[in-house]
Structure formats: structure tokens, C-alpha cells
Design a protein that fits this description.
It contains 18 helices and 20 strands. The strands form three sheets. Strands 2, 6, 9, 10, 11, 12, 13, 15, 16, 17, 18, 19 and 20 form a 13-stranded mixed sheet that branches. Strands 1-3-4-5-14 form a five-stranded mixed sheet. The two termini are about 30 Å apart. By secondary structure, it is an alpha/beta fold. It is about 35% helix and about 20% strand.
Length: about 600
């Protein structure tokens, strides 16, 4: 509760949801753009912090009109801190006893403490290419525009094909696609320095009668996506079935991956399972196809995931990526904001601006550890945005085989791996990954030892299946592995990079970090290097062994999303997924799913 000591983890900026969505005092697109849109956005934000209150982590802020507001983003502050500090020497101090001064290490250095820092993160441009979204420096005394660019371009473009019951024109789609591709890989830039990205084509609920038109539009755009880029097609289950049955379906293209979103509701899990099953049956006609599965659940009522994990285990070769996202009811959030606004307006004749202030406007950015005042003095939303309910449901669905300790922050993992991925370009794509550490967490399930192994039998995520897989965290000490790989990555950046030598060094790092009693399971992972990758690098063998291993791997991801009442500028400005704005030439963050 609020009576616990407050430990600030990092500073950020947010918007007051009551101002923006109840009073509607201003237009808040929350998107970078041309002219002065970025400055307008920053001027509409207010200081905030992500802070630990005992076991809870909350986004806290103060509005001069509506007072303080809190929303829970994690129910396990220690777990949140571990994700935030994954792969680092210094761990974030949570709940340190004694004194009121916060440790220097308790503030994550990736926060936003000023409008200028927010502007810097909002803007981005490819190295050596044209810079976009040029904004002012946020200072009223600035006499000229200042060009600030983000160090890494986005990873994904989410391009809507069908909106407001109509197809976008091909001219518009081509223009938006070309702008994005020129942004991440400018024309004229050397191919060796170009980044690879993902283009996600969102189809929406296209009428059944227009399924052929949709397919032709998708094929037309796929031909215009640059070589080396990946194409993902997001489409509802019934239209995915229709699309997959066409003779010239877009899904026959080798670099195209269908993405299915299903909604699982407590008590109605079988409906979602039926949708998934119908898609699997249709896609099985296409050899080698891979399906990305996006599972959306209600944060307050996470369903039973046992049936879903049974299906996923049976079709491991097809469903290799499963993403879980929790959302809370926007109606409930809006209702609570209205009630709070009413209370402020009718409290003994006081105006909202003169209401009691749980924090002074500087308290949310203070470096001191403070206690919050009475719960009645602040708006706290009843439904949380915490990922832990999903993690608990996964734990139950897998019989305890997968737990929260098996998950890692994907941004941190890919940041560590990026130097290696960029060097081994002949079989790994050079994708740019945002380093923000709590955008999403995930675990990788890998082939385990045989069923005769007691260690494998006790830790197998799906004990009733012939092809056993277990979380990679149950094979290797991942924190130590991350540290060792980070040290090795510093050497990889040098010009005298040796592929075979570095591969042997990665092998040694993995081998030295095998956990006790996991040697037999580790052997399969290590054989990936010893019998496959090393032979590929030496041009002495085929990739068959690698492909077989990779096809039995699965990735379980929990997306730590936001909504309009929990906007965190650090997460939003580091968002790796962009979507074109409805007006102008800028982009809005997409993977945060605020709107």
C-alpha cells in the first residue's frame, strides 16, 4: 500500500489521464512528427516516476488540476528490479532499510528527467542517412532548431492495410512503406551498414468478399519490401483461414509470417482454442510455415492457459513465438477517472486546483525516499497493469515447469547479442533492438535431454510430449552468461573480428555457465555450436542440424504494455514498433498499445 517506503527506480514523464481523456484540455497524439508537434507533446506531459512501494511498483505522478495518481505496473518489486538490472554489475536496491536517502544505484540511468531528454528519444534517424522528426530543444530561449537523433532506428513498422471499413490506397501504402525503409536503411548507404527491420501488415476485419483483393494488396506490398526484411501479416482467425486457402496466398512467400491474435476470457477459454485450432488446420497445408501467436487476456481475470499450452506443445514446429498481453477495461478506468473528477469538483466548494496535494509538484522527481499519504488523497486505479498474473497462470498451466525466474528482459538480451548478430550476417539478420529493459520479458524453451534423464523429467515444461523442451534458464546461469558475453562483445567490435575464433569463445562461455545437474540438457545446446554452426562457418557442412534444433525451440513472451492511464515516456520513446500517424509524416509508438 501507500504506507510503504517509496523508492524511485527511474524518472519519466507522463500525461494526466483525467486532463487528456475526461476534461480533454488538449490534443495529445503522443507521437513524434513534423514542425512543432513534438514540442507540443512535451509541453503537455508532466514529471512522473516509476517507484517501488514495498512489493508493488507503481507509475506515480502529480497533476496541478487533479492531484496525484498511481497505477500498479508490477506486483513484485524484486522481480521488476531484476528485469531492470539484468546483465549489469550493479543491482537496483529495493527496500533498503534505514535512512531516508535513496541509494545512487536505485535510480536506473535510462530514465527521463527533462523535456529535452524526451525530445531526444522521440527523434530518430539512420546513421549516415537523412534525419527525421526534427524538433526544437525544448528551451524557450532557443533561437534555432536543434537536430537531435535517436541512436537506433525502430525495429518494426506496423502498417494498417484496412481501416474504417475501407482499404487504404496503394499509393498511400507505398509512400508510407518507402519512407520507413529509407529511414532505417537510407538509399545510398552501404549494404553492410544497413539495418534489417520487420514490416507488419495489419489487415483488420476485411469482408470475406474482399479476401482476394486483400491478398493482391499484400503481394503488391511484399514485392516492395526490401531484401533482408521480414514481413508479418496480422489478420483475424477467420480471415486467416480464408487467406491461407487461396492458391496464390501471401503465406507461400518464404519471408512472410502470419500473426494471429486471439482473446482468451476466463470461463470461455474453449472459444479461443477453437479459433486457434481452425487456423492451425488451415496452415498445415503450407509446408514449413511459422505462426506467431498473440494471446490477449484481461488483467483482472487471467484465464486457464492449460489448454492453450497443450496446443502450443503439439505444434511446436509451427508455433514458435507466443506473446501474452494483459489489458484492463478502458470503461472501468474511465469510470474511476470520472468519479475522481467529480469528487475533486464537489469537495466542500474547493476547486480541483486547490485540492489537497499528496505530493508537491517536486515530490515525484525528488531523489529522497518518501512515504505517500492517505489513499483517499490520490487516484489509484483498481485494476493493475502488472505482468505477474500472466506469469502465475503460465506457471500453473505448465505444472510449475516455467516460473517467473525463467524470464528475461528481451531488450537487454538482444542488446548483449547485437554485436554478434551484426557480425554473423551470412546466417543472422542485423536487427536493431531497443535496449529498454522492461518493454517485454521472455523465455526460450530448448530441447532437453531424453526422458531417461531424471533432471530432464523433473524440469520438462511439457512432460507428456515426446519432444521435451525446458527453459534455457534451467540449463545455464544466464546472469553470468550475460556478463561474460558483454565482455566478449567489447572485443567483437574490433576490426580484426574472426568468426570461428569468436564462435569458439561463445561456446566456451556457454559451457562454463552450465548449471549443476543440467549437463545432459546443455549438451544439445552446445552441440548446436560444435556440430552445426562451426561447420557452417568453416564451410564444411550444411545447416540441417541447426534448422532441426531451431525448429524445436519456442519463445514465450509477456508484453508489459501500457494504456491511456499509464503512459510512461521512457517506454514509449524507446518503443521499437512504429505506426504511421493518421496525419502528417511522423510516427506513433505502436507496441505500447496506448490507443
Amino acid at each position: 500500500g501507500h504506507d510503504a517506503k517509496k523508492v524511485i527506480l527511474y524518472q519519466t514523464r507522463t500525461v494526466c489521464p483525467t486532463c487528456a481523456f475526461v476534461d480533454r484540455k488538449s490534443e495529445l497524439s503522443l507521437a513524434g512528427g513534423d514542425d512543432n508537434e513534438g514540442e507540443s507533446l512535451v509541453n503537455n506531459t508532466i514529471p512522473a516516476s516509476v517507484a517501488a512501494y514495498g512489493p508493488l511498483v507503481k507509475l506515480v505522478s502529480f497533476c496541478s488540476y487533479h492531484g496525484a495518481f498511481h497505477t500498479v505496473i508490477s506486483k513484485d518489486s524484486k522481480f521488476f528490479a531484476e528485469m531492470l538490472s539484468f546483465g549489469r554489475e550493479t543491482r537496483i536496491a529495493i527496500g533498503s532499510s534505514g535512512g531516508s536517502t535513496r541509494s545512487k544505484n536505485s535510480l536506473w540511468e535510462g530514465g527521463i528527467s527533462s523535456p529535452e531528454e524526451m525530445i531526444k528519444l522521440m527523434n530518430f534517424g539512420g546513421s549516415g542517412g537523412r534525419k527525421v522528426n526534427v524538433e526544437g530543444d525544448g528551451s524557450s530561449s532557443s533561437s534555432s532548431a536543434k537536430r537531435i537523433v535517436r541512436s537506433k532506428p525502430p525495429l518494426v513498422l506496423e502498417l494498417p492495410i484496412y481501416e474504417c471499413q475501407a482499404f487504404k490506397s496503394r499509393v498511400t501504402l507505398e509512400r508510407q512503406l518507402a519512407r520507413f525503409q529509407n529511414l532505417v536503411a537510407p538509399i545510398g548507404q552501404k549494404s553492410s551498414t544497413k539495418s534489417k527491420c520487420i514490416v507488419k501488415l495489419e489487415c483488420g476485419l476485411v469482408p470475406k468478399a474482399d479476401i482476394r483483393k486483400l491478398n493482391q494488396t499484400l503481394l503488391h506490398l511484399e514485392r516492395r519490401v526490401r531484401k533482408g526484411f521480414v514481413v508479418v501479416v496480422g489478420i483475424p482467425f477467420d480471415r486467416m483461414v480464408d487467406l491461407s486457402r487461396l492458391k496464390d496466398t501471401i503465406f507461400l512467400k518464404g519471408r512472410v509470417y502470419p500473426s494471429l491474435k486471439i482473446y482468451l476470457r476466463r470461463g470461455l477459454e474453449k472459444e479461443g482454442i477453437r479459433e486457434l485450432t481452425s487456423v492451425i488446420e488451415a496452415l498445415e497445408e503450407i509446408r514449413g510455415i511459422k505462426l506467431m501467436l498473440d494471446v490477449v487476456v484481461e488483467s483482472s481475470m487471467v484465464p486457464d492457459l492449460s489448454g492453450l499450452f497443450d496446443i502450443v506443445a503439439q505444434h511446436r514446429a509451427m508455433i514458435q513465438i507466443v506473446i501474452f498481453t494483459a489489458h484492463r477495461s478502458p470503461t472501468q478506468v474511465h469510470r474511476e477517472m470520472l468519479a475522481w473528477n467529480e469528487r475533486l469538483s464537489s469537495s466542500d466548494g474547493r476547486t480541483a486546483a486547490s485540492s489537497p496535494q499528496p505530493f508537491s509538484s517536486s515530490a515525484t522527481t525528488s531523489s529522497s525516499t518518501t512515504s505517500s499519504s492517505n489513499n483517499n488523497d490520490c487516484l489509484e486505479f483498481t485494476e493493475s497493469q502488472a505482468p505477474e498474473p500472466i506469469l502465475d497462470a503460465i506457471h500453473r498451466a505448465t505444472g510449475g515447469s516455467i516460473s517467473s525466474t525463467d524470464f528475461m528482459p528481451l531488450g537487454a538480451v538482444f542488446s548483449i547479442l547485437q554485436p554478434f548478430l551484426s557480425k554473423y550476417k551470412h546466417f543472422m539478420a542485423d536487427f536493431n533492438i531497443s535496449p529498454f529493459l522492461t518493454w517485454a520479458i521472455g523465455t526460450c524453451l530448448v530441447p532437453a535431454a531424453s526422458a531417461s534423464s531424471p533432471a530432464a523429467a523433473s524440469s520438462n515444461a511439457f512432460p507428456n510430449k515426446k519432444k521435451e523442451v525446458i527453459p534455457i534458464s534451467q540449463i545455464f546461469n544466464l546472469n553470468k552468461t550475460a556478463k561474460d558475453l558483454a565482455e566478449l562483445a567489447q572485443k567483437v567490435k574490433s576490426n580484426d573480428f574472426d568468426e570461428i575464433k569468436t564462435a569458439k569463445q561463445i561456446y566456451s562461455v556457454l559451457k562454463s555457465n552450465v548449471l549443476p545437474r543440467a549437463e545432459r540438457s546443455a549438451k544439445k545446446v552446445l552441440n548446436l555450436f560444435d556440430t552445426s554452426i562451426m561447420k557452417i562457418l568453416a564451410n564444411k557442412g550444411s545447416r540441417a542440424g541447426t534448422d532441426e534444433f531451431v525448429q524445436n525451440m519456442q519463445y514465450i513472451i509477456v508484453h508489459n504494455c501500457m494504456d491511456f492511464a499509464s503512459i510512461d515516456a521512457v517506454k514509449r520513446c524507446n518503443c521499437p514498433v512504429l505506426t504511421p500517424k493518421s496525419t502528417g509524416r511522423g510516427y506513433a509508438a505502436a507496441s505500447t498499445r496506448c490507443f
